[in-house]
């Protein structure tokens, strides 16, 4: 797709889909705010052209061309470089889907670099169009719309984790133990949750740094909007903490239930072994090739059978009362 462009004047969209020649032209206009979205699938050629037009810092451009998964905010003189991630979850595979989104931010422009398809850019532009008047305050509102869309996606991931662990909570109390493949799936989901928590906390820190008033990165008018999205980021981080606590509880409960099931099995095996040992003992005693009371007599057979039945029945009853059988 190459490059997507939009230009706003006085909070209204007046041009879009234009080429890079106009990017330079609009940059020289003090009343124009523009958005440029760059596809780096071509090896970074379009990004380097945009960087040349807007005089973007070479270190920030290098970061945008490489793959990173740690949200951060860097300051480069007249512009900022924000690295953030859009997240999704494939619950069937237990994989966290990460789409890196880099942003070059200055008052007259927002340049975005998306590495993947995990962020629906139509959601972002739709959000801009709903409250387009705020674009008159510079690209800060465009950046807010981008971040807000990304953070909203985090809540979808949290809901997916919630649904999965609700099913897990029900499954561990089932009659049958979880199969090895299921245990592997649990492990993958737990690892994805830990990764999600780390990225969410780093994203929260990046937004917090963006809001620092001593850096003047955000206009005063837009502070309430950024405060709102920051509160959402904090909520996400707190929700992941709660999910991690839930997962730890599920793991401990699962181990406890496995030990309980094993003890039940051992009690049953031991009980039946004890019951079987009685006939073995009686028949073994009466099977010795030596004289004993009742040897060669009918009442000796009756005594052996009586001892076998009574002792085995007594053990069975005792174990049954103790719920071992």
Summarize the structure in words.
The chain has 8 helices and 7 strands. With 325 residues, the protein is α+β, with helices and mostly antiparallel strands. A 7-stranded mixed beta sheet has the order 2-1-3-7-6-5-4, sandwiched between helices. The longest helix has 64 residues, at 223-286. It is rod-shaped. The protein starts with a strand and ends with a helix.
The parts where pLDDT drops under 50 for at least 5 residues are none
The helix-strand sequence is EEHEHHEEEEHHHHH
- The whole-angstrom Rg is 35 Å
Give helix % range: 55-70%
Shape: rod-shaped
On the 0 to 100 scale, the average pLDDT is 81
How would a textbook summarize the main sheet? 7 strands, mixed
Total of helices:
8
Distance between the termini: 69 Å
Give, in spatial order, the strands making up the sheet with the most strands.
2-1-3-7-6-5-4
Strand-residue proportion: 15-25%
Total beta strand runs = 7
How does the helix and strand content classify structurally?
Answer: alpha+beta
In terms of topology, how is this protein built?
Layout: E1 3-9, E2 12-16, H1 20-27, E3 32-39, H2 45-54, H3 58-65, E4 72-76, E5 79-90, E6 95-106, E7 109-115, H4 121-130, H5 140-171, H6 180-210, H7 223-286, H8 298-321
Parallel strand pairs: 3-7
Antiparallel strand pairs: 1-2, 1-3, 4-5, 5-6, 6-7
Helix pairs in contact: 1-2, 4-5, 5-7, 6-7, 7-8
């Amino acid at each position: 797709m190459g490059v997507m462009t939009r230009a706003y004047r006085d909070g209204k969209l007046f041009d879009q889909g234009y080429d890079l020649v106009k990017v330079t032209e609009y940059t020289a206009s003090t009343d124009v705010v523009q958005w440029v979205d760059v596809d780096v699938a071509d090896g970074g050629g379009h990004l380097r052209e945009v960087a040349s037009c807007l005089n973007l810092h070479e270190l920030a451009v290098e970061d945008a061309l490489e793959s990173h998964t740690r949200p951060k905010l860097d300051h480069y003189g007249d512009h900022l470089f924000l690295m953030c991630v859009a997240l999704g979850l494939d619950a069937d595979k237990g994989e966290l889907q990460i789409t890196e989104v880099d942003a070059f931010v200055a008052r007259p422009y927002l340049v975005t670099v998306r590495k993947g398809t995990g962020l629906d850019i139509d959601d972002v532009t739709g959000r801009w169009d709903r409250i387009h008047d705020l674009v008159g305050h510079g690209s800060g509102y465009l950046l807010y719309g981008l971040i807000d869309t990304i953070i909203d996606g985090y809540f979808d991931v949290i809901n997916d984790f919630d649904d999965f662990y609700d099913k897990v909570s029900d499954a561990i109390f089932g009659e049958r133990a979880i199969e090895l493949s299921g245990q592997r799936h649990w492990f993958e989901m737990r690892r994805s949750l830990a990764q999600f928590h780390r990225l969410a906390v780093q994203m929260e820190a990046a937004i917090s740094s963006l809001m620092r008033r001593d850096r003047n990165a955000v206009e005063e008018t837009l502070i309430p909007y950024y405060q709102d999205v920051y509160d959402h980021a904090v909520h996400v981080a707190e929700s992941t903490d709660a999910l991690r606590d839930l997962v730890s509880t599920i793991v401990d409960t699962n181990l406890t239930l496995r030990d309980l099931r094993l003890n039940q099995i051992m009690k049953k095996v031991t009980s039946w072994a004890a019951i079987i040992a009685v006939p073995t003992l009686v028949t073994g005693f009466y099977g010795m090739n030596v004289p004993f009371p009742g040897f060669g007599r009918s009442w000796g057979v009756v005594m052996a059978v009586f001892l076998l039945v009574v002792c085995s029945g007594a053990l069975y009853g005792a174990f049954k009362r103790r719920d071992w059988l």
